[in-house]
Amino acid sequence: MEPPGDVTAREEVGGLDTPVLPPRGHLGVPFSSVGSPDALADEQFMRLALVSGEAASAAGDMPVGAVAVRNGEVIARTFNMKEATGDPTAHAEMLALRDASRALGRWRLPDVTLYCTLEPCMMCAGAMVLARIGRLVFATRDPRTGAAGSVFDVLEHPTLNHRVSVTQGVLADESAERLREFARALRSRKRRGSQ
């Protein structure tokens, strides 16, 4: 009997040559149905996320932006709004997932790529798994709360029913510098305020 056409490798298990199938979700659909990455497109969409992050910074929030893309088209573009709204869940990624779901009229987003200027936290990474997004592209790691490999790895956890394909480091230096500038300005304002 011929193995399925999407067999990616073969391995010997218990003395038998057995096909290794790509990981699949509980509905039998591959975990990621987003096409292969395009470095130029990744950079273009990350630049949009960086511009969105500037709006967060102008509003006094951490300069994190997010862009949701489907079939090469932007379907959501957001930025952190925790300070503006007083909502602890108003992270750029959460808002982008909500807007993308509204735009598509569904909660499952396997054909969506999410671009974020900062590695997502556990809440945002969990929401990405629950939304079944196909791919995450983020700029810079978050060594304190990152949940795409820095502190936790929610997106590729083997016991979950969905794994998200992750690309990291796209425009990482630019994003990291904007975050550092924001942190310096915040510390400076706090010092001036305490004098």
Query: In sequence order, what are the helices and strands, one letter per element?
Result: EEHEEHHEHEEH
Rg (CA only): 19 Å
Give the strand order, joined by hyphens, for the main sheet: 4-3-5-6-7
* Proportion of residues in β-strands: 15-25%
What value does the average pLDDT take?
85
Largest sheet: 5 strands, mixed
Helix content: 25-40%
The unreliable regions are 1-33
Separation of termini?
A: 78 Å
Class derived from helix and strand content: alpha/beta
Beta strands, count: 7
**Molecular shape:** globular
The number of distinct helices, counting runs of at least 4 residues, comes to: 5
Structural summary, described in words:
The protein is an alpha/beta fold and 195 residues long. Helix content is 36%, strand content 21%. It has 5 helices and 7 strands, in the order ββαββααβαββα. A 5-stranded mixed sheet has the order 4-3-5-6-7. Strands 1-2 form a two-stranded antiparallel sheet. β5 (112-118), α4 (122-131) and β6 form a beta-alpha-beta unit. The protein is globular and about 50 Å long.
